[in-house]
Amino acid sequence: MKLQLALDLVDIAGAKEIVAQVAEYIDVVEIGTPIVINEGLHAVRAIKDAFPSLTVLADLKIMDAGGYEVMKAVEAGADIVTVLGVSADSTIRGAVLEAKKTNKLILVDLISVKDIKTRAAEVDALGVDYICVHSGYDHQAEGINSFADLQAIKSVVKNAKTAIAGGIKLSTLPEVIAANPDLVIVGGGITGEADIRAAAAEMKRLVSQA
Ligand SMILES: O=C([C@H](O)CO)[C@H](O)[C@H](O)COP(=O)(O)O
C-alpha cells in the first residue's frame, strides 16, 4: 500500500517546503487541482525538478481532450495524470493511449459518479492504471466519505489498482487500510497538522504495515 500526499492550498514555494519535510515518508506527491489552476503545469515541472525521485501526480481532473491534456501533463513531468470517471469513454481511452506512449499512468477519479460499481467496472475495462473513490471538498462539507465506495469497487475492479481520497485523517486511516486500497491519498490530514513531518511519518508507518 502506497501513500500519496495531496498538495492543494499552497503555491509552488509552499509545496516545495512541505515536500522537503516529508519526502522520505511519501510515495507519490500530488500537484492538486487548485495549484494547477493557480500556477499552471509549471508547478508539476517545479516539483519534479526539485524531487526527481518522487512519483508526481498531476491532478488535472481531465473531462475532455484526454490525449492532448495528458500529453501536456507528461511533458511537464507528470508520472500519473487524473481523468474524471464521469467523462466519456473516448476521453479515458485517449488518455490511456497517450500515457502508454511514455509508460506513464492514468488514475480515474470517480468523484460524483452516481453508479460507482458499474462505472468502476467500465473504466477498469478501458485499461486505466488506478481507480479512485473520492469525496471532494464539497462532499466532505456535507459529511460524506468514500469508505463504503472503496469496498464496493473492490468487488468489481479486476485489473486496475484502487485508491481512495477525501478527508482521510490519522484517526480514520485504520478504517481505510482495512479496506485494502493500493494507494491512500491524504491532503489536509497531513498538511493541516501542526507537525507535518510527524503526521506523514505515522501515516507511512501504518500504510507500510498493511
Ligand atoms: O482532489 C482533491 C480535492 O478535489 C481538491 O482538489 C484533494 O487533493 C483530495 O480531496 C485530497 O485532499 P484531502 O481531502 O484534504 O485529504
TrEMBL record:
Catalysed reactions, as listed in the record:
D-ribulose 5-phosphate + formaldehyde = D-arabino-hex-3-ulose 6-phosphate
Orotidine 5'-phosphate decarboxylase domain location, by residue?
Answer: 2-203
The record's listing under Gene3D superfamilies reads:
Aldolase class I
Molecular functions (GO terms): 3-dehydro-L-gulonate-6-phosphate decarboxylase activity; hexulose-6-phosphate synthase activity; orotidine-5'-phosphate decarboxylase activity
- Report the record's Gene Ontology biological process terms: 'de novo' pyrimidine nucleobase biosynthetic process; formaldehyde assimilation via ribulose monophosphate cycle; L-ascorbic acid catabolic process; one-carbon metabolic process
Source organism, top-level taxon: Bacteria
Q: Which EC number applies?
A: 4.1.2.43
Tell me which PANTHER family the record gives: 3-KETO-L-GULONATE-6-PHOSPHATE DECARBOXYLASE SGBH-RELATED
Q: Which family does it belong to?
A: Belongs to the HPS/KGPDC family. HPS subfamily.
- What name appears for this protein in its UniProt entry? 3-hexulose-6-phosphate synthase
> From which source organism is this entry?
Paenibacillus monticola
